[in-house]
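User:
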Amino acid sequence: MGTFGEIKSEEVVILDNRILVTQSNVASTLGGVIDPLKEYFIDGIINCAGVSVEIPAGGIYISGYNFNLSKIICADASFTMFTSPVGGSGDVLITDIGIEITGVGSKVYDLVSLNGLQAIEIDKVNYNNCTSRGVIDNYRQGLETGTGYFGGTPELTLKGVWAGGFFIETSIVRNLTDGPYSLFKAGVGFLMSSRFRSNQNIDLPASASFFDFSPSNFVNPSTVDITELIITRNGVFDSEDANLTPNMSKGDLVANWTNNNGLPNTFVGGTATVTTEVATVINTIGVYETLNATLWTATNLEHFDNPSGSQLRHLGNTPREYKITADFTIDSSANNELVLRIKKWDNSLSVFVTVHDQRRPVNNLQGGRDVAFFNININTILNENDYIFLEISNQTSTANVTAENDSYYIIEKR
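Assistant: Predicted structure:
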């Protein structure tokens, strides 16, 4: 019988739901029939030469100590690390490992979802010198947290219909090999219903792109959500670099790019400016007429268009809260009283709504130029296909009114 405090024996802890993957058993564990009810734990740096992992309909869970102590590596040419059987794969959950698939023509993933309802979630994983991250087809959603892409050409192709989205949170990209590829790329039939979001810290080589998506790849407005991204090319910031996102711009309806450094930001709204004057005919005292100009020039339109005249129409469904700022100088008869009206077409109700009226006198100025000055700053709600336009009334007489050149109004999100 031992004395107090004496260690009599060592306890051995057996984890029934964990399969330890070592160099000696990798062919029979990762290369065998995957049990979706087990966790595959990568015990060390495992060379998977000749050993692909076929992820079954039930999915797979792989973990390790961390991305330095636990790695899956392979330098074979034309090699794919993770594949799908006929019929497709289930959920893919990988955490705390490094992945180094470096052979010519090789890739990390070639996965097809079982039924479009699966997820791939990658947590605290480094992709080191990978030739390609491969293809993921028809998954519901993807999530990366704490990932790193270091070296290689780690392009990932998203393919098929994604009912959800893809979110990359807290990720760094450094020391990549140069070439004409993208970190993310649209594959055949790629269509995403929810958001693609990234806040990565990225440094690209000379020819690579951040992503190669088109607006047609996204179902809903404002769902390419790039927020607080930092991106450089060979250490240099250049937000005018068209090759960062070669087939999409910040003003596209699907784009919502905010607070980024090195990438342009989306400023939802637009401006309508009087650039050629013409009188608005006042037919009846106190009756509103559409404010005319021979030419209204619409500029800085993002998620808005200009169907005609002073109209600025909201094309998206988010954001909905907007600020309207107007600065108008309007010529008419001295001492007449004018009312400038901000009017909205509410498309969902099919009605016109008065947003704001501002009443001002026409100042009796020296030199024959008698004008009223309007300065407006208000808030409103604009849903899809709602539009703003301007009306004017003369409350005193039927003297015509003329909006002077460079009068303008701006719509911008609050």
